[in-house]
Amino acid sequence: MTITDHTIPLAVRDHGGDGPPLLLLHGLGGTLDAWQEVAPALTAAYRVVAMDLRGHGLSGEAPWEWDAVLDDVEAVVDRLGLGAAVIVGHSLGGMLASLWAARHPECPAVVNLDGLRSAENDPANYPGMDPALVTRELAQLKAMFDAQEAAMARPLPPEQVAALPPRAVTTSGDDSYLRPGPELLAAIRYAPHFRDAVPALRAVRCPTLVVLPTQDPPGMPPSELMAALRRGVRRDLAPIAAAHPHIQVVELAASHNMVQEKPGDVARLISDFVQDTSR
């Protein structure tokens, strides 16, 4: 379904289910299809809804402004009558989940699936690694992401369009392009909250589960960089979790792509945590 009485159209999939509401938020470059294997495992105990974020999937185009995106989430919650929903987010969606909980103290719980820090980051956030090597590998990572961003601005060949899910593509005239577009991608990529969402957890007062990966994403060149990034996240997350007992941190034997790699484990972590918080 599509919500049309908002500032932009918002595409939503209501998976149904009985019980407290859960709203699922995908990561950068994803769509609500990311939850296709997770959502059915949750509907026995929860009403499960997923949405396409602005500029993604079948939702409308609009500048990326964090408060406006939270307004989008609010529109979905209001129009579908979700009330005080548990917010579950992966990557960018996890960052939004933390901001949502800070805005809504009544939020019953948040699950943040590796939505704490982007791979491109300040050199100090890669502890235990030679600084010169960090500088070199960050330059290589930037070049890779720059190339991906540039590719978003180029029309797709017809055979690639045919191979992609419809939600991943937008059409302009006779040409088709990947979503999100390069402008939105750049706006998110360099946003301070996207680069480092760890400090935002200090403002969250509801029960929060943070799930950290233990493995590098597939396709990454051999490097110490991602392991060092994970060390930095653990380093900076530990004192926040110690000072805020409502924040629980667990690690999952998966990469950042945990929703696709371990959907059953992700669903169990979500369900067990929400059940524990409701007791």
From TrEMBL:
Full protein name:
Alpha/beta hydrolase
Hydrolase as a keyword? yes
What species does this protein belong to? Answer: Nonomuraea aridisoli
Kindly state which keywords UniProt assigns to this record, in alphabetical order: Hydrolase
- Give start-end of the signal peptide: none
InterPro entries xrefs: AB_hydrolase_1 (IPR000073), AB_hydrolase_fold (IPR029058), AB_hydrolase_sf (IPR050266)
Q: Which PANTHER family match?
A: HYDROLASE, PUTATIVE (AFU_ORTHOLOGUE AFUA_2G14860)-RELATED, MONOACYLGLYCEROL LIPASE
The organism's superkingdom is given as Bacteria
A Gene Ontology cellular component where this protein is annotated is: membrane
The Gene Ontology terms for molecular function here are:
hydrolase activity
- Annotated AB hydrolase-1 domain ranges read 20-123
